[in-house]
Amino acid sequence: MADFDAIYEEEQLDNEPLDEHAVVPTVPDPILIRGAGNMTVFGLSNRFNSEFPSGLVSRVAPEEFKATIGRINGILKKALPVNVKWLFCGCVCCCCTLGCSLWPVICLSKRTQLTLDKLLEWENSHLYHKLGLHWRLTKQQCDTSSMMEYVILIEFIPKTPIYRPD
């Protein structure tokens, strides 16, 4: 009868040999798509680069990639000019309102991010998860400065280990 109340040291569990028949697939590094626009509001660029990355060859059609980036850029094209106008007005009135005039542009920026997140969630559930990809909008530090920017990160979903009996 097994002793269910026994406490085993962690070392004993770690020393167990791995199943030599299990094949663990390697996952490629994520692909990063940076903003390519000439205007950035709170780290969000006014458009993303639509050049097809070489890491997606044979995983997704270039047309699908360009269509997704086009939808993302369409949302940014509509939202960011309004955000810039509110940012300008907020900066002009900042001294009089003790910074409270910047709240509308912060809220609009958050709304744009949420809209992009919802779009990417829809794209993932309808297309990219089936292809083993996951798109997400994430913050990352700029290469040239200590400021943060939003980038699109395309991650590869690892497949479950395959068991191959001899």
Automatic annotation (TrEMBL):
One of its GO terms (cellular component) is membrane. InterPro entries: CHIC1/2, Golgin_A_7/ERF4. Residues 46-135 form the Golgin subfamily A member 7/ERF4 domain. It is found in: Membrane. It holds the Pfam family Erf4. Keywords: Membrane. The keyword Membrane applies. This is Golgin subfamily A member 7/ERF4 domain-containing protein. It comes from Hermetia illucens.
